């Protein structure tokens, strides 16, 4: 549906009338991928100790030789910056994909990866782990967060499907918002009585990419991989779903099955991303809109583009956050907002919108 | 011409009054729901006034409101407890009507003022006032009001390109909300602990210690803006069908949208200034009201009553549950409103009425 009224007889020609140009996304996709690779290298190079890019590449290619040459650089690259960069990539991919899926499934531009209650469930999981089980290590309660996210999204999925109308996009969205607020209230109620839980909860809620090791990342990798495969496989079905449930059914899609597949993917992706990096869901809300401005509503292109653009934004924000306020750091979510926000508004004003 | 004319056709009753010249569809369920909600709100209102450290019998509350009875009780009821109860009712109604307006204008049930950045702007202004200019004697409600209005104007201007569409308002609102929330986070990380605590106390939405100086501006705003919202209700019914259909039915789409947005923003800004951003009411109350009366779009009056009831009841529950701690009312509206909305979603009894 397009709402710009002058469109059909626009003097600027037929390209404007059809909404968005019939772009050839292959070239753009290659450009975006190159940008992402450069940003990843920069993310390893930039920090309180600058490392030249050629040295970064050498260290990454031959770890043993690098350790012999300069053990300090090797330790920084392999011990600190590479895990952080990999985490940024994975979290970005997960948030971007799950945001695009969520918007496609609910056909609502305000849907974010946390809409299924994932962030709120993870938050409650962490607070419960600290307040009731006395777990104090940062990576001890990741699993509580993950389980909380899983449970919350299962409840939302079931509630959205109850009632005689079955599952509809609006019902799922409203059930998700309701569960989110319900869980947030419980979290606040626990936190208000337990200052220790409040302290640790705030640390997680600020959102950060710093501090993980490869072990933690490796444990989450299977969930992320399965989620990514499920998400990408859902792309053609999401295109049918965008025409409405009735049309999708008529086109031979099993709507309920597609919803289940999408929900599962969102839960795995967003659940693990939020558990490690905190609730930085805004990236997953905005980047799919950015990608949609480039690709139009076709999910076959939209999903790969979000997969590349979301980690780019996250890594760029992380790099800038390390540089602007030396020696301290500014949180990745904050920088991402001030890089992504104005750019996004500019695009919204310039391009005709491909609506969901 | 008779004074009142009733006509039934197609299972509906239409009415026409001779003087004043008014006509419309008589919806029994809407009328019943509104009466029921109003009665319930009044009961909760009275019980709320009766509850406290010095208990007053709920039956004595109504006479005491009019100034008859024990002078001590009259003082407690009228000076200490009435402002808080009134703030709850008025702010709840204002949040709910504002939510109904935004959900209609953008045709999106998730597009309440707290989702598209207006509350975020008010919050940023207040937190900036606390953190950057603490001790400058700035009035926090005034800051919140200014922040909310400025953010809304910014969103509308940025979304304007030969006319604003609901979709573009939503997208720009997302971005602005994101930036405001991040600015708030940044300010909070820079703040001293005491300043951060003061800011957080305001952020949740709070009714504690509200006196007549809060009720004055809020009631004036609600008395002007609520009827305005009701009058604009006829436009919301056509806008809900989409821009093209609305224009075809003779609605001045851009003008209607501008008027509605102005009323909605003013309502939420005044309410936020009075209580802070009380969570979830603006989103849930219109959806609950819509499902109660069985219409396809959020009804204004029923939304207002639902919102008033939601905040008053949450305040009461908060004080009952943990009497010795002043639990912020925002924490309870989340739980109560969510539970009720879920119940309505689950028992949706015919296809389509749930969503």
TrEMBL record, chain A:
Gene3D superfamilies: ABC transporter involved in vitamin B12 uptake, BtuC (1.10.3470.10). Keywords: Cell membrane, Membrane, Transmembrane, Transmembrane helix, Transport. Pfam families: FecCD. InterPro entries: ABC_BtuC-like (IPR037294), ABC_transptr_permease_BtuC (IPR000522). The chain crosses the membrane at residues 26-46, 85-102, 114-135, 141-160, 172-192, 264-290, 302-324, 330-348. It is a multi-pass membrane protein. Belongs to the binding-protein-dependent transport system permease family. FecCD subfamily. This is Iron ABC transporter permease. The lineage of its organism: Bacteria, Bacillati, Actinomycetota, Actinomycetes, Micromonosporales.
Automatic annotation (TrEMBL), chain B:
Signal peptide: none annotated. It is found in: Cell membrane. InterPro entries: ABC_BtuC-like (IPR037294), ABC_transptr_permease_BtuC (IPR000522). It holds the Pfam family FecCD. Gene3D superfamilies: ABC transporter involved in vitamin B12 uptake, BtuC (1.10.3470.10). Keywords: Cell membrane, Membrane, Transmembrane, Transmembrane helix, Transport. It comes from the Bacteria. It is a multi-pass membrane protein. Its main location: membrane. The chain crosses the membrane at residues 29-50, 85-103, 115-133, 140-160, 166-188, 255-285, 292-313, 325-346. Belongs to the binding-protein-dependent transport system permease family. FecCD subfamily. This is Iron ABC transporter permease. It comes from Plantactinospora endophytica.
